[in-house]
Structure prediction request, 262 residues.
Amino acid sequence: MEGTLANRPEQAAGTVSVVTGAGQGIGRATALRLSAAGHRVVLVGRDAGKLETVAAGLAGPSLCLSADLTAAGEADRVFTAVEQTWDTAAVLVANAGASLASPLADTTDEQWQRMLDANLTAPFRCLRRALPAMTERGWGRVVVIASVVAKRGERQVSAYTASKHGVLGLVRAAADEVAGTGVTVNAVCPGYVDTPMTRSTIAAIGERRGVGADEATALLARRQPIGRLIEPDEVAAAVQACVENGAINGQGINVDGGAVQS
Prediction:
């Protein structure tokens, strides 16, 4: 299996793939794609019920692990459970995260720390735990779901933006560190995606501006040149490309309808 993976990564059937934040949105769409490609998928998230619902729709074997990855020690517990049940993880999709909209001057220390814990420290701990086994195996794929605000500043989301800039830096440093080992590390940077997290943002915009959900959605959609929200599966397709193509490394791939051009 290891030789097959190293030489023909597109034929990664049976690969153990860990997807965090797998209960909905981008995580769910990614799990569906990986499972359809023959991966054994580990679904990680806070809501066990949501994980079980996703698992029921997968094409192959799955393992549901309820965890709050912002808590110290939880990443170690998750990967240990994966190893004890199946094998070391060959693919990690670090999708779990949180968002916050607040003017910089009104952002509290607690809110700032919550964004760093969820969007930077938790992915760091997952990478730290997963990478040694991948490099020892000689094959591995890490994909972190970042954001277009990992590449630009945006008003009202200073803490979220800073955390996403940080995680893109983590990806680039890790990619350089493992280059040549058969392991790649990339980020996918979506714009506004039609997910529960975005719907929370839409509700906040509507409340702040005194408009309905449809108008608030249209305001977000107009920020993307294609004039609509991104579909979760469109982000998952970019994740799958990073998993299947070993020549993609150290990249932040935009899936934003052209809002940020590289």
